[in-house]
Amino acid sequence: MPAIILVGAQWGDEGKGKATDLLASRIDYVVKFNGGNNAGHTVVIGDEKYALHLLPSGILTPGVTPIISNGVVIDLEVLFGEISALASRGIDVSRLRVSANAHIITSYHRTLDKVTERFLGKRQIGTTGRGIGPSYADKINRVGIRVQDIFDEGILRQKVESALEVKNHLLVKIYNRRAITADEVVSELLSYADRLRPMVCDTSLELNNALDDDKIVLFEGGQATMLDVDHGTYPFVTSSNATSGGALTGSGVGPTRVDRVIAVVKAYTTRVGSGPFPTELFDESGEYLRAKGFEFGTTTGRPRRCGWYDAPIARYTTRINGVTDFVLTKLDVLTGLDQIPVCVAYDVDGTRVDEVPVNQSDFHHATPIYENFPGWTEDITGVRSFDELPANAQKYVLALEAMSGARFSAIGVGPARDAIVVRHDLV
User: Fold this and answer.
1) Radius of gyration of the chain, Cα coordinates, nearest whole angstrom
2) Catalytic (active site) residue 41
3) Is the pTM above the cut of 0.90?
């Protein structure tokens, strides 16, 4: 049975949790393959709203096995905080599986993340300060702490002491902070061992066995394509591969198992943190999108930067990920606008550029070339078929589809769990 990869098509916050929830009733496994608790999914079920940061959103669907795989960096305090919060609301969390090879975010990672960002001043990246970047840096430098290490106190202490030899010099001599003792780090991590042990397994083996047994596996990406450390707007990116290729290395499943790549794209564009954003709005239109779309970070609460739909970015996402299907979200936010601009290309120093420039400086200075589409005033939150959408809403969707390089298989028309129009089957 094939695997399905789900990624964000812009700079995150596209509504991937809603898309995952749409698919979850028909799948057996949902896998988080990258990132940490630096991004969140908001899922609305009836009158209940769930904000998930580290757990895969499939944990909300009965019968689905949620997996945190090896590509994720895990803050154990956050993990067990989320588990307790969901359990207190009657959600079954017993099915959760965690990779023994996933890396752990320690207290010194969080501290270094915050002080380093402050030290950068005006050159700040816009990190959430949750230790994700420093944890990935230790992974690449081969001095990271993995989940399996906390079950062997001797190995854990050895690795923590080795890591702190350098990090304490930075904290004390460069950042004027106190040194962190190995005892406090080891003690904190060991305190989670007994609760974590039943969840830990070889998740790569379990996933491949599941696919052999004709189970359907969904790989759920954190962040999004334009935040990918290799293919995003570097250096204003996350510290992991948020694209479809990251699903393979981040989970231990081979490319021949993948049948479909679904990208989630918002009907306009948002971004949190620093970095280039060609269609960003600084006027009342931007405030309108922020207020009506409730564009504030699930994890950070930060107001999101807002702009119009960017078709070159959608095409770039299609190419980088091998997208087969798009899920368009938040179409309802555009209801009430007379005209809806769409970026169809860029002007870079007087030259029209139809694709995302490979040169970061060019992208930073790109100004959007817009095409305007007529809006609609009808309430679409109750619509459940494409033909029921207002004529101008249909034209807008079809125009975006033609510009974006892959079919639009589902359209979000409201915040409710069932507020979605399905044009093509996604499983």
Assistant:
1) 22
2) yes
3) yes
